[in-house]
Automatic annotation (TrEMBL):
Its main location: membrane. The keyword Protein transport does not apply. It is a multi-pass membrane protein. InterPro entries: MetI-like, MetI-like_sf. Belongs to the binding-protein-dependent transport system permease family. This is Microcin C transport system permease protein.
């Protein structure tokens, strides 16, 4: 197993390098770089993309020269050159890319172009919201879906199985943002009840609350966003659990265990559970990281939560390249490492799995 893990860790380097090269290359062809953003602001346009609607702008991250920037005709060439030097755009793209990788290898992710804060500090600032949504959404989905899937497998074909399947499929079909708006209208001061707050992760007086009051205030604010982001997560996990149990229940060792006179609970939780839960439990790290880092932009916007979803969107719109590439690098490493952890979870849940023997 050690050799397998070492090989997987070594594959992280070329995989991450490929991700960075592809994204950096694509950015070179995207119009409206950070200099265009500044020029548009100085010219009073407020939007660097206004000039592209008529096909007049051709600036991108790799552009240089004051005549290449739409709207820059009224600005001194020296000012444009100074901007290029400040942002590092006076260098060729290859040199900028190599400098960026060298800085990332030293864990120097730079500073946001427009926020005057380091990328690491910016990510840490937004992380509580994403942790809250990702952690609680994943835990609630597992806590509901696993028992429900087991119950559906045991009572396969019954009326309970039928109506619960219909319910989770309907929930899966409801768009998260539409359900979030419905929750706001019904429970957050819309046309009906005003039980939950409209925005934010905590109240304005959070610092003045007691420890118990802070915990209650936190869950009070996070309740609706978590419900909205979890509503569609039950279907896949529940049906996966049910099908896994059905496959295991039909196997010979279960028939033998029942023939020995074991109680149904002993058969289900003593023999079937570990084998049936292999896929479900082993996939927990990947599921959590997926929910955590995907950061639902729409959910965060509806509930006025400042998380990683909004951070990524705002960085892309503003062409804040240090934030875009810094977060891409950090999350890329985490995602690749989580893939390795998922394999380790498979071995932990079922020691019979041997990746080295399968590769051989």
């Amino acid at each position: 197993m050690g050799a397998y893990i070492l090989r997987r860790l070594l594959l992280v380097i070329p995989t991450l390098l490929g991700i960075m090269i592809i994204n950096f290359a694509l950015v070179q062809f995207v119009p409206g770089g950070p200099i265009e953003q500044i020029i548009a602001t100085l010219e009073g346009e407020g939007d660097a993309f206004a000039g592209f609607a008529g096909g007049g702008g051709e600036a991108s991250m790799g552009n240089s020269g004051n005549d290449e920037y739409a709207g820059a005709r009224g600005l001194p060439p020296e000012f444009i050159a100074e901007l290029e030097k400040e942002f590092g755009f006076d260098k060729p793209p290859v040199e900028r890319f190599l400098d960026m990788l060298w800085n990332y290898m030293r864990f120097d992710f730079g500073e946001s172009y427009f926020r005057s804060i380091s990328v690491i500090d910016l990510v840490l600032e937004k992380m509580p919201v994403s942790i809250s949504l990702g952690l609680w959404s994943t835990l609630i989905a597992y806590m509901v879906s696993i028992p429900l899937g087991i119950r559906k497998a045991v009572s396969d074909g019954s009326s309970f199985d039928t109506w619960t399947s219909a319910a989770i499929i309907v929930a899966y079909a409801i768009p998260g943002f539409l359900f979030a708006i419905l929750l706001l209208v019904l429970f957050a001061g819309g046309s009906y009840l005003q039980i939950f707050p409209l925005r934010g992760l905590t109240s304005d007086n959070w610092e003045d609350l007691s420890l118990l009051g802070k915990v209650a205030d936190y869950f009070w604010h996070i309740a609706l966003p978590v419900i909205a982001s979890t509503i569609s997560a039950f279907a896949t996990l529940t049906l996966l659990t049910k099908n896994s149990f059905l496959d295991e229940i039909k196997k010979q060792y279960v028939i033998t265990a029942r023939a020995k006179g074991l109680a149904e609970k002993q058969v289900l939780y003593g023999h079937v559970f570990r084998n049936a839960m292999l896929i479900v439990i082993a996939g927990f790290p990947a599921v959590f990281i997926g929910v955590f880092f995907s950061g639902s932009l729409i959910i965060e916007t509806i509930f006025s939560l400042d998380g990683l979803g909004r951070l990524g969107f705002e960085a892309a719109v503003a062409r804040d390249y240090p934030v875009i590439f810094g977060t891409l690098f950090i999350f890329g490493i985490i995602g690749l490492v989580v893939g390795i952890l998922s394999d380790l979870m498979y071995v932990l849940v079922d020691p019979r799995i041997d990746f080295e023997r399968r590769e051989g």
